[in-house]
Amino acid sequence: MIMVLKWFFRDHLFFLVKDDITECDVDAIVNPANSLMIMGGGVAGAIKRRGGAGIEREAVQMAPVKVGDAVVTSAGKLKARFVIHAPTMAYPTMRIGVGNIRLAVRAALKVAGEKGFRSIAFPGMGTGVGGVDQVVAAEAMVEEIIKWFEISGETDVYLVAFNDALFNAFKKALEKRIPSLA
Length: 182
Hints:
This protein has 182 residues and is an alpha/beta fold. It has a single domain (25-176), classed as Leucine Aminopeptidase, subunit E, domain 1, CATH 3.40.220. The chain has 5 helices and 7 strands, in the order E-E-E-H-H-E-E-H-E-H-E-H. Strands 1-2-7-6-3-5-4 form a 7-stranded mixed sheet, with helices on both faces. Strand 4 (71-74) and strand 5 form a beta hairpin. Helix 1 crosses helix 2 (53-60), helix 3 packs parallel to helix 4 (134-151) and helix 4 packs across helix 5. The two termini are 16 Å apart.
Protein backbone atom coordinates (compact mmCIF):
# COMPACT_ATOMS: atom_id res chain seq x y z
CA MET A 1 0.00 0.00 0.00
CA ILE A 2 1.28 3.44 -0.94
CA MET A 3 1.14 5.97 1.88
CA VAL A 4 1.19 9.73 1.24
CA LEU A 5 1.28 12.58 3.76
CA LYS A 6 1.50 16.30 2.94
CA TRP A 7 3.10 19.34 4.57
CA PHE A 8 2.63 22.88 3.25
CA PHE A 9 5.54 25.30 3.57
CA ARG A 10 5.89 28.72 1.92
CA ASP A 11 3.57 28.02 -1.01
CA HIS A 12 5.16 24.64 -1.61
CA LEU A 13 4.30 21.11 -0.69
CA PHE A 14 6.35 18.43 0.94
CA PHE A 15 4.97 15.02 0.09
CA LEU A 16 6.05 12.09 2.21
CA VAL A 17 5.56 8.89 0.24
CA LYS A 18 6.15 5.26 1.11
CA ASP A 19 6.83 3.72 -2.29
CA ASP A 20 9.49 2.87 -4.85
CA ILE A 21 11.15 6.09 -6.09
CA THR A 22 11.35 4.66 -9.60
CA GLU A 23 7.53 4.82 -9.70
CA CYS A 24 7.35 8.57 -8.99
CA ASP A 25 5.73 10.70 -11.66
CA VAL A 26 7.70 13.94 -11.09
CA ASP A 27 9.97 16.20 -13.11
CA ALA A 28 13.07 14.61 -11.58
CA ILE A 29 14.14 11.92 -9.15
CA VAL A 30 17.44 12.15 -7.30
CA ASN A 31 20.09 9.47 -7.51
CA PRO A 32 22.45 9.56 -4.49
CA ALA A 33 25.34 8.81 -6.81
CA ASN A 34 29.06 8.30 -6.55
CA SER A 35 31.40 10.72 -8.34
CA LEU A 36 32.17 8.15 -11.04
CA MET A 37 28.44 7.82 -11.88
CA ILE A 38 28.61 4.03 -11.71
CA MET A 39 25.05 2.83 -11.00
CA GLY A 40 25.56 -0.52 -9.31
CA GLY A 41 23.40 -1.05 -6.25
CA GLY A 42 20.87 0.62 -4.00
CA VAL A 43 18.79 3.45 -5.46
CA ALA A 44 21.16 3.87 -8.40
CA GLY A 45 20.85 0.21 -9.32
CA ALA A 46 17.06 0.38 -9.08
CA ILE A 47 16.99 3.46 -11.33
CA LYS A 48 19.22 1.71 -13.87
CA ARG A 49 17.17 -1.52 -13.81
CA ARG A 50 13.83 0.26 -14.17
CA GLY A 51 14.85 3.15 -16.42
CA GLY A 52 17.46 1.43 -18.57
CA ALA A 53 21.24 1.34 -18.88
CA GLY A 54 21.17 4.46 -21.06
CA ILE A 55 20.79 6.56 -17.90
CA GLU A 56 24.12 5.27 -16.59
CA ARG A 57 25.84 5.69 -19.98
CA GLU A 58 24.69 9.30 -20.13
CA ALA A 59 25.80 9.98 -16.53
CA VAL A 60 29.23 8.35 -16.92
CA GLN A 61 29.97 10.72 -19.80
CA MET A 62 29.80 13.61 -17.29
CA ALA A 63 31.99 11.93 -14.66
CA PRO A 64 33.72 12.66 -12.44
CA VAL A 65 31.20 14.79 -10.57
CA LYS A 66 32.38 15.91 -7.13
CA VAL A 67 30.31 15.71 -3.98
CA GLY A 68 28.53 19.07 -3.82
CA ASP A 69 27.76 19.18 -7.55
CA ALA A 70 25.01 17.47 -9.53
CA VAL A 71 24.23 16.64 -13.14
CA VAL A 72 21.01 15.84 -15.00
CA THR A 73 20.31 13.00 -17.40
CA SER A 74 17.24 11.74 -19.16
CA ALA A 75 15.15 9.21 -17.23
CA GLY A 76 14.83 6.46 -19.82
CA LYS A 77 11.72 4.38 -19.19
CA LEU A 78 10.94 5.93 -15.79
CA LYS A 79 7.79 7.96 -15.11
CA ALA A 80 10.00 10.86 -14.06
CA ARG A 81 11.31 12.98 -16.89
CA PHE A 82 14.86 13.43 -15.58
CA VAL A 83 17.34 12.01 -13.08
CA ILE A 84 19.46 14.34 -10.99
CA HIS A 85 22.68 12.57 -10.05
CA ALA A 86 23.94 14.16 -6.82
CA PRO A 87 27.01 12.35 -5.48
CA THR A 88 27.08 11.56 -1.78
CA MET A 89 30.41 9.72 -2.13
CA ALA A 90 33.52 9.85 -4.30
CA TYR A 91 33.72 6.12 -5.02
CA PRO A 92 31.17 3.30 -5.00
CA THR A 93 30.44 1.70 -1.60
CA MET A 94 32.14 4.41 0.50
CA ARG A 95 30.92 5.15 4.00
CA ILE A 96 30.06 8.83 4.33
CA GLY A 97 29.16 11.45 6.90
CA VAL A 98 26.03 13.58 7.13
CA GLY A 99 27.91 16.54 5.64
CA ASN A 100 27.99 14.74 2.29
CA ILE A 101 24.22 14.33 2.43
CA ARG A 102 23.78 18.05 3.02
CA LEU A 103 26.03 18.87 0.06
CA ALA A 104 24.22 16.44 -2.23
CA VAL A 105 20.76 17.73 -1.28
CA ARG A 106 21.84 21.35 -1.87
CA ALA A 107 23.35 20.40 -5.25
CA ALA A 108 20.20 18.56 -6.36
CA LEU A 109 17.97 21.47 -5.35
CA LYS A 110 20.23 23.97 -7.08
CA VAL A 111 20.07 22.00 -10.33
CA ALA A 112 16.29 21.57 -9.99
CA GLY A 113 15.95 25.34 -9.63
CA GLU A 114 18.24 26.07 -12.58
CA LYS A 115 16.29 23.65 -14.78
CA GLY A 116 12.90 24.98 -13.65
CA PHE A 117 11.71 21.63 -12.32
CA ARG A 118 8.40 21.95 -10.45
CA SER A 119 8.65 18.59 -8.65
CA ILE A 120 11.59 16.56 -7.37
CA ALA A 121 11.70 13.25 -5.48
CA PHE A 122 14.45 12.37 -3.02
CA PRO A 123 15.20 8.93 -1.59
CA GLY A 124 16.94 8.56 1.76
CA MET A 125 20.27 10.08 0.73
CA GLY A 126 23.25 8.16 2.14
CA THR A 127 21.11 5.72 4.12
CA GLY A 128 22.10 2.61 2.19
CA VAL A 129 25.68 1.95 1.19
CA GLY A 130 26.72 5.32 2.68
CA GLY A 131 25.87 3.99 6.13
CA VAL A 132 24.26 7.12 7.59
CA ASP A 133 21.54 6.48 10.15
CA GLN A 134 18.10 7.07 8.63
CA VAL A 135 17.04 9.48 11.39
CA VAL A 136 20.22 11.55 11.00
CA ALA A 137 19.87 11.62 7.21
CA ALA A 138 16.18 12.56 7.34
CA GLU A 139 16.87 15.45 9.75
CA ALA A 140 19.65 16.80 7.54
CA MET A 141 17.62 16.46 4.35
CA VAL A 142 14.56 18.22 5.77
CA GLU A 143 16.73 21.02 7.21
CA GLU A 144 18.44 21.62 3.86
CA ILE A 145 15.19 21.58 1.90
CA ILE A 146 13.55 24.05 4.28
CA LYS A 147 16.60 26.36 4.02
CA TRP A 148 16.29 26.20 0.25
CA PHE A 149 12.55 26.98 0.36
CA GLU A 150 13.26 29.98 2.61
CA ILE A 151 15.68 31.44 0.07
CA SER A 152 14.55 30.52 -3.40
CA GLY A 153 12.82 27.21 -3.69
CA GLU A 154 10.07 26.93 -6.27
CA THR A 155 9.83 23.17 -6.41
CA ASP A 156 7.52 20.76 -4.60
CA VAL A 157 9.53 18.06 -2.87
CA TYR A 158 8.69 14.38 -2.48
CA LEU A 159 10.54 12.46 0.22
CA VAL A 160 10.25 8.83 -0.80
CA ALA A 161 10.79 6.10 1.76
CA PHE A 162 11.25 2.47 0.79
CA ASN A 163 10.57 1.17 4.30
CA ASP A 164 8.68 2.04 7.50
CA ALA A 165 11.81 3.13 9.40
CA LEU A 166 12.76 5.75 6.79
CA PHE A 167 9.12 6.85 6.40
CA ASN A 168 8.90 7.42 10.17
CA ALA A 169 12.26 9.23 10.25
CA PHE A 170 11.13 11.64 7.52
CA LYS A 171 7.75 12.07 9.25
CA LYS A 172 9.33 13.00 12.59
CA ALA A 173 11.77 15.41 10.93
CA LEU A 174 8.90 17.14 9.11
CA GLU A 175 6.61 17.21 12.16
CA LYS A 176 9.29 19.05 14.15
CA ARG A 177 9.18 21.93 11.68
CA ILE A 178 5.87 21.98 9.78
CA PRO A 179 2.28 21.12 10.69
CA SER A 180 0.86 18.26 8.61
CA LEU A 181 -2.04 18.71 6.20
CA ALA A 182 -2.81 15.01 5.95
